[in-house]
Amino acid sequence: MKVREVAFKVLWDILRDDLYSNIALDKALRDEPLSIVDKKFLTMLVHGTLQRYSSLEYEIDQVTKGKVIKPKMKLMLIMSLYQLRYMDKTPSYAIINEAVEYMKNLDGKAGASFTNGVLRTLTRENHKPKVSDFPSYLQYLSVAGNTPMFICKMWNAQYGGEITKEIIKVNLKEAPLTIRVNTLKTTKEKLLNEEYEEGKLSPCSLIYKGNKRISELEEFKNGEISVQDESGQLVALMLDPKQEDIILDMCAAPGSKTGHIAELMKNKGKIYALDLYEHRIKLLIDGMNRLGVTNVEALAKDATNLDFEKEMFDKVLLDAPCSGLGVVRRKPDILRKITPERIDSIINDQKLLLESANKHLKVGGVLVYSTCTINKNENEKQIAKFIENHPNYQLIEEKVILPYEYNSDGFYIAKLKKGEPHA
Q: Which of 152, 204, 322, 372 is the catalytic position?
């Protein structure tokens, strides 16, 4: 199968069969016999098409003028237009010819002819969205920046217009490939070479600049590194685990933060790492084995309804389920699937998890709450409400990282200390 056909299939699986982009792409990269160059091309084409989907669709709509287009033809047009606009190493005629041939096999001569006409028109004419095309600047940002209007309005209300623009702008760029050094096995200094450069936020981070997939590197196979964004690395550092601590990691899989906590504890103490699903627990265990971590007990449990002793843990990490709006660069399909109703449901789940964390944290213990989203309703307001309901908690530290500030994921981290219940 040609690499563009693989890309089309991956995109179809993501957009029509509702697969997560990282899972669908990883499967293709693992299963298809592609060269290193083709794997890089596939990743760029899939991510880029998803990142620019709305603006590409807008251009096609301007040319087709309301004609009903079959879903697979629409996707082929959008994917091909992304190549024409943003991947200029391939000649236009080659992109168009391959799209035409694919549509001929799928939809006959009429489909091929229509595809040819639309793409050739778009090589001559530029219909990219302009501010003057829309009633408001936010509506322009929504289309040009591939961001649902309700998210644009939410960010505009929470952060203001300039920050909203910066967030959307960085979401259209490629995210860095960041790794965490496993201090149980090596040091950052031993790994630093021409393929790595130092990060900006975390003392144990490196940015990978090489061409191989991380999973193919010897240092990954032998557990010296893990893939984890710098913002995410700050979570375990804020938890500040001690070697004698008993720690609960409530939503642990796939285990990036669990592994980091264990590394900071030097494999001492005890970490109970939970996830709702057995298959994700297996992933976590495999990850801990690769890292050489031995102080983690991984359990499939519903973290909202735990049977541990009350006030058993010195520290609790709640890396909560969230809307994922801070990791859009890595998972651009998030913006095509998120809804206000889904966010409301997530916020309710977070509340239940916080109540459970409270039950099992010792008086004097530390709770760290983190998300990879930049929605204050899931973050600052969620924690403010929790403290309002539990005035014995003190907010020790709160950190908001927006994705354009350090070229990292967007993240929220809050550190709270539990005091004696008020009379």
A: 372
Q: What b/e string do you get for 255-272 counting C-beta neighbours within 10 Å, with b at 16 or more?
A: bbbbbbbbbbbeeebbbb
pLDDT for position 1: 67
By the 10 Å C-beta count (0-12 exposed, 13-18 middle, 19+ buried), 385 is classed as middle
Active site residue 204: no
Question: What CA–CA distances, in Å, run from 6 to 10, 26, 45, 51, 133?
Answer: 6, 12, 10, 18, 35
In whole angstroms, give the CA distance from residue 56 to residue 69.
14
Q: Which residues of the chain have pLDDT under 70?
A: 1, 423
Both tokens assigned to 297: 């007990």
- pTM score of the predicted model: 0.95
Residues 70-92: pLDDT tens digits? 999 999 999 999 999 999 888 99
Q: What is the mean pLDDT of the chain?
A: 95
Which tens digit of pLDDT belongs to each residue from 19-29? 889 899 999 99
Helices 3-15 and 36-51, packing angle to 10 deg: 40
What is the rounded distance in angstroms from the CA atom of residue 197 to the CA atom of residue 189?
Answer: 11
| Dist. CA 14–CA 41, nearest whole Å | 18
Using CA atoms, how far apart are residues 373 and 409, in angstroms rounded to an integer?
9
**Sequence-ordered alpha helix ranges (H) in 134-269:** 137-144, 149-159, 161-171, 188-191, 218-221, 230-239, 256-264
Contact predicate 118/63, CB 8 Å: yes
- The DSSP 8-state label assigned to residue 217 in this structure reads S
